[in-house]
Amino acid sequence: MSDRPDANGDRGRRAELKVAADRLREEGCTVGEIADRLGVAKSTAYRWVGHIPLDASSDSAAQRRQAAGARRALRWAGKRTLREAAECEARRRAADWVGALASRELLLVGAVLYMCEGTKSKPANPRYDLTFTNSDIRLVELFVRFVETTGRSRHELRYRVAIHENADAEAAGRWWAAELGVDVGCFQRPTLKRHHPRTTRTNVGADYRGCLVVRVPRSRDLYLWMTGVVEGMAAASAPDPRPPEVDDTR
Is the whole-model pTM more than 0.85? Predict the structure, then answer.
């Protein structure tokens, strides 16, 4: 019996593989997938099916896109977790750097905060009752502490929730009162914003509590003092060297 390989058998086998490669290509398989499934080299698979366009609408192509999307999502999730951890650490370092605020520091910060977010008096409409509005409890608390530094009590202030009409205004008022440590009786009737169903809003759900309007009655002298402080800060000399661990080159 001859030990020579059966050339006709090899040719028949390769012909069968080529037919199978054509079929897989029509099903939307890539060259790499065809090579793996048929056990041939990628160069061989490419020679067989490289001239056949890849059908992007096939089930195989859809599965491949779905798998690729899942891999991307997993990869970005890992990067997002690392980024969030780095950002959290940066905020923690900055918070530790602040430490305890002296009265002078709180007065300066409060004056600037109000001039950014509070109601301003205009020559045509002079108004000296301080009215501060914000949705961030941290900034509201900082403003209230500023007012307390001037000798007023947070219980003397007047509060009002401004919120969309389809939200729970009473629950929001209770939340703001608890966060600030004041009685809900200090709150005036809420201001309800008309809801436009066609508008896509992201401030919805149980965590949406609107804005809080804080009014400081009889505050003409304080308002004039704040405007003078801001003018003085703008005209002041250059600041001290920047705080440690702040990299503003990135």
Answer: no
